[in-house]
Here is the input.
Amino acid sequence: MSALNAAHNSGLKVVFPNALIAGDVVITHMLYRLGLINDISVLFVNTLHLFEETLDFIDDIEKEYGFKGYTTMAEGISGDRIESKAMYDRVYGADLWKKDISAYDRICKVEPFQRGLKDLGAQVVITGRTRW
Here is the structure.
């Protein structure tokens, strides 16, 4: 937990990209237990291909831990759940991931992630990855 405190105490803008994998859920809990959950921006990337249960899980953890994350998605897409998916399908096509996985990754994952970090002014990024 000392790394989380060190990041927070650095005086820099700290962002935690949360992909809802097991390690990210643990980090969310740790941030909450340390009283940092509202001091560190939590970034979610909605790939517009998430299960409804995943979107529900985002809502659940925000409610449980008392914070509101910052969600990004493909550029030019707006709305919530069904609206945003329908807009994405009209703009990019529902089968982009089948036709061009590289374009899908760039449009739905990489660009929204990078934009989210920029929008939030990230200077320090918390991840569950370890140094070896």
